[in-house]
Structures are given as structure tokens and as C-alpha cells.
Q: What sequence folds into this?
């Protein structure tokens, strides 16, 4: 039974490694695309943060990005309008 568990854990570690590699490649492409967008730097920071962290918590973003909460809220509204079209 221990051998079976170890084998499954090894399989999971291999799969996790592959998924992390794919995430890394995807984030590199996201960074390239966002960098090429005609957006103000603050919008780029917020957009990248939302994609990278999968988090839209305004207070946490404010602390992480050193931007005012009101600015982040306005940016999120703008991005929602611009990207959902």
C-alpha cells in the first residue's frame, strides 16, 4: 500500500511540475501582451495582478501595488468595460 501511495504522489508531483511550467509560459505571454497594450502603467499593474493572483480584493491590491483603493476600483471598472466588450 505504501508503494502505491508513493507512486501516486510521484505522479502528482510530475503533473504539478508540468502545470507549473505551463503556468510560467502563460504568464510570460500575459506579461508580453499586457506590456504591448496601450494602457497607463497603473492599469497594466492592476491587470497583471488580477491575472497573476486571480484576486480582485481591492484592499489587498492596494497594499500589494501601493495604489489607492479608489484608483484600483476605478481601474477595475474601466478594465471591465474595455475588456468585456
A:
Amino acid at each position: 500500500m505504501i508503494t502505491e501511495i508513493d507512486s501516486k504522489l510521484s505522479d502528482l508531483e510530475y503533473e504539478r511540475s508540468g502545470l507549473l511550467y505551463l503556468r510560467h509560459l502563460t504568464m510570460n505571454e500575459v506579461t508580453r501582451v499586457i506590456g504591448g497594450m496601450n494602457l497607463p502603467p497603473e492599469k497594466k499593474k492592476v491587470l497583471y495582478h488580477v491575472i497573476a493572483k486571480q484576486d480582485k480584493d481591492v484592499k489587498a491590491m492596494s497594499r500589494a501595488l501601493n495604489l489607492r483603493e479608489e484608483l484600483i476600483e476605478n481601474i477595475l471598472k474601466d478594465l471591465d468595460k474595455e475588456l468585456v466588450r
Summary: The first helix runs from residue 2 to 36. The chain has two domains: 1-36, 40-85. The CA atoms of residues 9 and 62 lie 38 Å apart.
